[in-house]
Design a protein that fits this description.
The chain is mainly β and about 120 residues long. About 0% of the residues lie in helices and about 45% in strands.
Amino acid sequence: QLQLVESGGTLVQPGESLTLSCAASRSAVDYAIGWFRQAPGKEREGVSCIGMRNGATVYAASAKGRFTISRNISLNTVYLTMNNLRPDDTAVYYCVADGRQCPTRDARYWGPGTQVTVSS
């Protein structure tokens, strides 16, 4: 079992930055950990993913150039730094893992989510 807990979601204004954290309950070095988000009335979509062992990263088109995913192996933690936030980034953000590959919507391990609201 791998438990994931997100933190850092809050209300921000357009153009501001925010960093989300995802803490794993144990060593996650053998996983790739990803971020998904779900906006009201929309399906969950993948945002980014990082391999905990090698640090390889993947970004969705909506995240490229604005979001940065990073990790701290010793803390079993993954971060998502989001810059120049827009109202359409408003969503519940989930931390997700399944195995060594970037997780999909069918992944086994999901955090409870953290709400990010971008509004003036």
